Amino acid sequence: MKLLVINGPNLNLLGVREKNIYGSQNFDALIDMIKRKCDEEGIEVELFQSNHEGVIVDKIQQAYGVFDGIVINPAAYTHTSVAILDALKAVMIPTVEVHISDISQREEFRKFSYVSLYASKTIAGHGFDGYIEAIDWLKNNIK
Ligand code: DQA
Prior knowledge:
This protein is α/β, with parallel strands linked by helices.
């Protein structure tokens, strides 16, 4: 199985940004944890982070026919990006959406997610473990 893990804007600043919300572990720790998990499960994984909406759209388009599943934390684009939603709908790759924080318990503008309109599952508020749960879900549900 081949998985693509996409992290959106400002997630590269984990460990620096709003530690009270996102914790003190940095982005490298997140990457290491995902790589270790995929190694253990025998999953081939590519990790991708961008602060740019169009670059994320390009990456999703390029995933067509290449990846079996996508784990995506679209970060702020969760709440704004019809383009990322449309890209996911276009390639039709099974997708799990992850948020480190519980977006349902934060500001009003974070409560709506465009990506949720396509994602098979959304995991929010479980910290870094949410990515592990997303990988497990895809492993168990991709035929
Ligand atoms: C986030 C939640 C978003 O609202 C926010 O813009 C982020 C991170 C999370 O992982 O909790 O950048 O996706």
